[in-house]
Specification:
The chain is mostly helical and about 400 residues long. The chain has 18 helices and 5 strands. Strand 2 (about 125-130), helix 5 (about 140-150) and strand 3 form a beta-alpha-beta unit.
Length: about 400
């Protein structure tokens, strides 16, 4: 009779132990496998996250993806991200990135242009300075051509030229921001009068190149005779000079009167970021640095540097004379609208300084008493047409030198 061992207690214990050992071995192998896979997967995820963060950082700092990511993309094949989500956003430009400096003749613009050449190289913006100095009034066709050429300059840019205000929006072209500097009207006139005849410290012979057709009797014409005997150069409409730079290209902007004055004031308020006065040039530079840091950062330190001072001192007008008191009073009477505009700009300039909290670095200038007591009457414009004259390059001089008694 055969025994049934499978039902015996001893056999059952052996079977259970064998099964338990086999299950334990399988569980240990599975745990080791899962542990090994988790560590590898964790390391892979961390490396991927690190590469993503590193690449994203370079992408943002450089305005585009780094070269290594482009190479990886090329190796892995073309991505459909661009197709699904569109092109990456362009690099953000500083605002404003389009600036026009329609500089007024003999109002320190040569000083500013010298500074801009240094700043453009330092801050990597496009400076375009026109070499056309004797065409401030343009036909409609010339206006459109110039505005389109300006708009096509790679941004950020700063364009400078002696030209009356251009209204870009009139021709549906994006309007840039304007800046400018003016000075005391009589001082500007005297600086221009003697500069055209005798040049500056860069070489007294350069006036012969600038005005070769001027005869000696005109070149050596006494300033008092020119003013008191009402020569065309010393009377209206020649004295109506600053306002048209802000009024614009309309023919009426060249006629001394309230219409041109009010339109010039309106353009200053609506289209000019800043109009400074040369008598407070250091404050002008401080404001430009504050309002346009991507163009004018460090401009004041450059202006005060010895190397720049040496260059700037060469632009002063030579043989400058002070007119008589009677001649000054006559000039002031003829330049009523110019002084109205100058005082308006000066007030707006001081208001801007107060808003920004800028402490003045210049002493304020005061209107002389003998001018304040004058009856402000503007002579009628001359009938003859005004001839275009070459715009002079500029200098920085004592803004109140003409106030001295002869």
């Amino acid at each position: 009779m055969m025994k049934n061992y499978s039902n015996s207690p001893h056999h059952k214990n052996q079977t259970l132990n064998h099964t338990r050992d086999r299950n334990n071995k399988r569980s240990n192998w599975l745990s080791a496998t899962l542990l090994r896979f988790s560590l590898r997967d964790y390391g892979f995820c961390m490396a991927t996250l690190f590469l993503f963060c590193f690449g994203s950082l370079f992408y943002q700092l450089n305005g585009g993806p780094p070269k290594i990511l482009l190479e990886i993309r090329q190796y892995l094949g073309e991505s459909t991200f661009v197709d699904d989500h569109g092109p990456p956003a362009p690099r953000v430009l500083p605002f404003p990135s389009q600036v026009v400096y329609n500089r007024v003749g003999k109002c320190g613009s040569r000083t500013v242009v010298l500074l801009l050449r240094i700043l453009a190289e330092r801050h990597q913006f496009n400076l375009v300075s026109s070499d056309i100095h004797n065409k401030t009034r343009l036909t409609k066709h010339e206006q459109v051509d110039l505005m389109r050429n300006i708009s096509n300059i790679p941004q950020p840019y700063l364009y400078t030229r002696h030209v009356h205000f251009l209204n870009f929006t009139r021709f549906r072209i994006e309007q840039p921001v304007y800046i400018n500097i003016i000075r005391d009207p009589i001082n500007r006139f005297l600086s221009n009068y003697f500069f055209r005849r005798f040049g500056d410290w860069r070489g007294e012979q350069n006036h012969l190149i600038r005005t070769p057709g001027m005869k000696d009797d005109e070149r050596y014409l006494d300033i008092n005779v020119c003013i008191l005997e009402n020569y065309p150069e010393c009377s209206n409409p020649r004295l109506f000079y600053i306002i048209p730079y802000f009024c614009g290209q309309h023919p009426q902007c060249r006629e001394p009167g309230l219409w041109a004055l009010e339109r010039a004031k309106q353009n200053v308020l609506e289209n000019f970021l800043l109009v400074g006065v040369l008598e407070e040039l250091e404050d002008v530079l401080l404001l430009l640095e504050r309002l346009l840091p991507h163009f004018f950062t460090d401009v004041l330190s450059i202006y005060k540097s010895p190397d720049y001072r040496k260059m700037g001192n060469m632009t002063g007008t030579v043989r400058k004379q002070t007119p008589s008191l009677e001649a000054l009073q006559t000039l002031y009477q003829r330049m009523r609208y110019e002084y109205d505009f100058y005082n308006f700009v000066r007030e707006q300039f001081h208001l801007t300084k107060r808003k920004i909290g800028l402490k003045s670095a210049s002493r304020p200038t005061h209107q002389p008493n003998f001018l304040l007591n004058l009856a402000l009457k503007t002579q009628e414009p001359l009938e003859e047409d005004e001839e275009e004259e070459q715009e002079p390059e500029d200098d920085v001089e004592d803004a109140n030198s003409w106030l001295a008694q002869p």
